[in-house]
Amino acid sequence: MKITIFGATGGTGRHVVEQALEAGHHVTAVVRDPAGLPSSGSLEPVVADVMRPEAIEASVAGRDAVISALGPRGRGAGQVCAEGAHSIAAAMRAARARRLVVVTAGGHVVDAGDDLLNRVLVKPLLRRFLREGFADFARTEEIVRGSGLDWTIMRPPRLTDGARRPYRSAVDRNVRGGITIARADLAHAILAALDDPATAGHTISVGY
């Protein structure tokens, strides 16, 4: 499979790149600085501004799937994820690419998968302290849902750098009690979603 990855040198993106290469995929990594990328004959680094659709159109043309692992770099990052999703979707439509997987988070969503503690205490507190980031994720999901593409939204809980281990997933709801997941396991779930056409048009939550 030919895959384009945005945010390829970020915490999650690095794992996605490594696991995609291990699985035999051809990876195009769109980055600002290619220094953090692994060396592989199946990896094509592209230095481009993700916020300019015309600059990334060639990087998504002819690809089987596109992954956005963009994430905010601390507070005050604004609408990085949403603006990136808008640009990526525009480039994909222009290039007639269809399959898109975007990473947001589960913290800004309260649904049937959440237990009472999360609904009434934990998530309301998170919304107060992480208001800007959660607003970015919510706007990102609006853009992706309205993109007209074959999208899947990945909603992880708090990310860690732990080792891979068995995890749980849920479709269109949060994973009950799943409060953390390792970035390596999130990467595995992202690639699994690419292989499953049934995930198109759905959100996938993961957690332990």
UniProtKB/TrEMBL annotation:
Spell out the SUPFAM superfamilies in the cross-references.
Answer: NAD(P)-binding Rossmann-fold domains (SSF51735)
Pfam assignment, any one: NAD_binding_10
The NAD(P)-binding domain sits at 7-197
Q: Which InterPro entries does UniProt cross-reference here? A: NAD(P)-bd_dom, NAD(P)-bd_dom_sf, Polyketide_Oxido-like
MF terms in GO = biliverdin reductase [NAD(P)H] activity; riboflavin reductase (NADPH) activity
Q: Which PANTHER family match?
A: FLAVIN REDUCTASE (NADPH)
Please state what the protein is called. NADH-flavin reductase
Q: From what organism does this protein derive?
A: Nonomuraea thailandensis
Task: Recite the lineage of the species.
Answer: Bacteria, Bacillati, Actinomycetota, Actinomycetes, Streptosporangiales
